[in-house]
Amino acid sequence: MVKFIYQVAIQVFAFLFRFVAPFNHKLKLGVEGRKGLLNRLRTSFAAQAAGRPVAWFHAASLGEFEQGRPVMEAYRNAYPGHFILLTFFSPSGYEIRKNYTGADFICYLPIDTPGNAREFVEIVNPHIAFFIKYEFWFNYLRELRKNGTYILSFSSIFRPGQIFFKFYGGFFREKLRYFNHFFVQNQASVSLLAGIGIRAASIAGDTRFDRVRAIVSNAREMPEIGRFKGDKQCLVAGSVWDADMQVLIPALNALTGKLKAIIAPHEIKDHEIAGWRSKLNGRSILYSEVTAGQNPEGFDYLIINNIGMLSSLYRYGSMAYIGGSFGAGLHNILEAATFGLPIAFGNKSYHRFQEAVDLIEKGGAFAVADGNQLLKTLENWAGNQEEALRAGNVSAEYVKSGTGATDLIMEKVKQAMG
Question: How many CB atoms sit inside 10 A of residue 168's CB?
């Protein structure tokens, strides 16, 4: 019965997806990107991949892509003759990484209807399939199992409250049983899976640790950012939303002249950025104005109005604030941690992120409830260099100690590939 409901629900979802798309920019990109996709796979993909074993990597969005990237690159090195297919569900992943050179073919994943899944797997015929963190699509998993594809999940983390572990979660547990192996982040996840009869699971950790460690050596030098920072301490506020800025702005206003800030919004909305600038007491400049030739020296705030450079900005920071935790969920704190920065974020929705819980416990990160708590935290770091350095070292060591997941996953891959 639940399977039937799922199949009906996914058809309804596909219809609503197309119906609402004209009124939502992100949905519209997703709908447009999927038009004629199976035909393109049948022609262009099939011609390019002809005669080569296919490895399929699926990422929900940009964050999952970054988790999967170390494994994709390791797979490419181990099997240079194989063809790598990378799919995304969300436009926020596909539109930013559609030109990534580490994959041979990049596209959206068609909606998980029985027909789409059957045709997709028939065309692609993957030898091995990697699902990064989550994205457990029933029809695709069923078709992959019928196809004889080896199915791996990595960087996943499970919690008792998830539907897989409820008495009524039988259908959702069935999806998990299609996987050949799970590489999870902690022992609690291994135990939860064992409790529902899934023992093909082992701890590898989070592949993002491997990714962010590589960022340090590959981070771009940006002289214009150095000119903005000068010799002052600088806060890097990464992936912030309006809810974060309502907490940040009062704290920054109280520290005007004492602390510079680089502000990188999670989504670029010109009207929202204009509103933030009007509320900030200090002088602000857009990154686009800097690249157009304006000198950033003498400004208090640099607002990054483009996407894709945040990971290189942390090298110019003295401390970091990471957005998202006053909303749906905390964004990536590991990029800031790997540069040895003390980190602050909202106290509302960070508990699902193991690295946030760990760093709070170890003293490298701090959760704040409001602007007053954030102000006290920033004042402490700005006025106590020794304390800021200690917390930053905790962050850096935490990332260093968490690397190695990619190697563990590739050992299993090589066993599976014979």
Answer: 8
| Structural domains of the chain, with CATH | 2-206+403-416 (3.40.50.11720), 221-401 (3.40.50.2000)
φ/ψ region of 260 (left if φ > 0, alpha if ψ in -120 to 50, else beta) reads: beta
d(Cα 129, Cα 144) in Å, to the nearest integer?
8
Give the torsion sign (CA, 172, 175, 180, 185).
negative
Least confident residue range of 196-205, 214-223, 240-249: 214-223
Q: Which two tokens stand for residue 29?
A: 């990109």
**pLDDT at residue 219, as a whole number:** 79
Q: Record the pTM.
A: 0.80
| Mean pLDDT across 65-69 | 93
Residue with tokens 């981070």: 219
**What is the average pLDDT value for the chain, to the nearest integer?**
94
d(CA 288, CA 210): 31
CA 162, 212, 69: angle at the middle one, nearest 5?
70
**Separation of alpha carbons 109 and 117, rounded Å:** 9
Helix residue ranges per DSSP H, 22-127: 25-34, 37-40, 46-49, 62-78, 91-97, 114-124
What is the identity of the amino acid at 185? Q
Q: Report the distance separating Cα 188 and Cα 168, nearest Å.
A: 21
Give Cβ neighbours of residue 137 (< 8 Å, ≥ 6 apart).
Answer: 109, 112, 117, 175
Task: Give phi and psi for 54, each to the nearest 5.
Answer: -105, 130
What is the C-alpha to C-alpha distance for residues 269 and 250, in angstroms, rounded to an integer? 21
Q: Does 373 or 212 have the greater pLDDT score?
A: 373
| Whole-angstrom distance, CA of residue 82 vs CA of residue 80 | 6
Rounded mean pLDDT, 35-43: 96
From the list 202, 320, 338, the residue with the least C-alpha distance to 263 is: 320
pLDDT of residue 63: 86
Please state, in angstroms and rounded to a whole number, the distance separating the CA atoms of residues 165 and 159: 9
pLDDT grade for 217, boundaries at 50, 70 and 90: confident
Query: Distance between alpha carbon 273 and the CA centroid of its chain, in Å?
Result: 23
